[in-house]
Design brief:
This protein is about 45% helix and about 10% strand. With about 425 residues, the protein is of the alpha/beta class. It has one domain: 3-Layer(aba) Sandwich (Rossmann fold). Helix 1 packs antiparallel against helix 2, helix 6 crosses helix 7 and helix 9 packs antiparallel against helix 13. The longest helix is centred in the middle third of the chain and has 20 residues. The radius of gyration is 21 Å and the shape is globular.
């Protein structure tokens, strides 16, 4: 009974904080709440659910470094480096970048056998796992406070591509003294790359090879009816949330994350599995229950309402284009009445695409269109398993059979 009461109090505590109920409510509830980890230990949580990136890596005997990267517009990003166990590092460093609701944790939470970050490190590569602005690891700015200044959240994947990714690439190159990097992105991490490579084409010369897992660029065949229905209203929904002081959404300190973490601990297949089925096409059993539980503790790491709105605009416009600020806003920002499209013909660095057959967020038809527009496409690999969907690229039981060998093969070829 005590455990149940503590669980309810903890949920209320997080709810009061995320709903902005004020300092008094926060102090009142926080006063009696034990450390969250003590509560989770008492509930016998697998520690992989709540350990952070560095703690997870160290648990499995990997050494890490934490780096902080400043962007040209003042955001401070956290990048984790996993140090190779090999005496001699192979090839150029590899930058990993996650999807919209995620963090760098997604590349290691599946454990040493399947976690891409670990596998690359075991193969003697120098791995740098980056984090988007605004997520749980990257909530700092030289002047803005994410808890007080709504301007902090005025970004979408456009800023990730224009500011975040170039800053990380330059930082890694300067740190290693090497003239190029490799890049692996998942979901919106691929969108960020194509944004950067089209708007800042000089960066193509700094990329040895980019690998794109579940690439998200065109959403003409987007497979979630509810979101299709909501897409035309994204701008008004964003404005309403912003006015309500909710420019940050799906953050780790908000109720959605807490619900996910606790429910997936106890019923991973019924909650996490069903959620992934509805949103990505996930087939039950293709990701282990333990990995689903761990994912529940690391998902919903925070993003902006503008990021969601921008993706909604892609659905409505059927184009890969910059954020639509409205006629006057577009003229002021871009010099045109309509937002310009990203020019994929400028993505001249080598690109490897990896696509799942049952992915609602990265449909085969849309990836095929992307492939047709890339001037230096290495291969569009369609995973030969009809049950694969969006997150199997990261956490699938059979990544060693269908995906990791292909990634290692191409990286070795381009880095030898």
């Amino acid at each position: 009974m005590e455990i149940i009461i503590l669980s309810v109090l903890y949920l209320l505590h997080v709810g009061f904080v995320s709903c902005g109920s004020g300092t008094t409510g926060y102090k009142l509830l926080n006063f009696a709440i034990p450390d969250a980890r003590l509560l989770k230990k008492s509930l016998r949580f697998d520690e992989d659910i709540y350990l952070n990136f560095t703690e997870l890596a160290h648990k499995y005997k990997y050494s890490t470094e934490e780096h902080h990267v400043a962007t040209d517009d003042g955001y401070i990003l956290t990048v984790f480096r996993i140090l190779p166990k090999c005496r001699n590092i192979t090839g150029y460093p590899i930058i990993l970048l996650h999807g919209i609701f995620d963090s760098s944790d997604v590349f290691i939470l599946a454990g040493p056998q399947n976690g891409l970050g670990y596998v690359l490190t075991d193969n003697c590569y120098d791995v740098w796992a980056a984090n988007h602005r605004g997520n749980v690891y990257s909530r700092k700015h030289v002047a803005l406070d994410p808890n007080k200044d709504s301007e902090y959240w005025n970004y979408s994947f456009d800023e990730h591509g224009v500011y975040d990714l170039p800053a990380v690439i330059d930082y890694v190159m300067n740190s290693t003294g090497l003239p190029k990097v490799n890049y692996i992105g998942h979901s919106q991490g691929t969108t960020d790359f194509f944004t950067m490579a089209s708007l800042k084409p000089d960066y193509n010369a700094k990329i040895q090879l980019s690998v794109h897992l579940a690439p998200v660029v065109f959403w003409k065949n987007f497979g979630i009816p509810v979101l299709k229905f909501l897409a035309p209203s994204v701008n008004s929904l964003k404005d309403a949330l912003d006015k309500a002081g909710l420019s940050e959404v799906l953050a780790k300190h908000q109720l959605a994350h807490v619900f996910m973490e606790y429910s997936c601990r106890f019923v991973p297949n019924e909650i996490c599995g069903t959620g992934l089925y509805i949103t990505t096409g996930y087939k039950s059993g293709t990701i282990s229950s333990r990995t689903l539980s761990a994912a529940g503790g690391h998902l919903f790491s925070g993003t902006s309402t503008k990021s969601l709105a921008h993706l909604g605009q892609l659905i409505t416009s059927q184009k890969f284009q910059r954020f639509d600020e409205g006629t006057s806003g577009n003229i002021q920002r871009y010099g045109t009445r309509l937002p310009p499209e990203y020019d994929l013909s400028k993505v001249t660095s080598p690109v490897l695409l990896m696509t799942a057959q049952n992915d609602y967020l990265s449909p085969l038809e849309d990836v095929k269109e992307l492939a047709s527009k890339l001037p230096n496409l290495v291969e569009n690999v369609i995973i030969p398993n009809p049950t694969w969907s969006h997150n199997n690229h990261l956490w699938g039981k059979d990544v060693w059979k269908f995906e990791l060998p292909k990634i290692l093969e191409y990286i070795k070829y381009y880095n030898s």
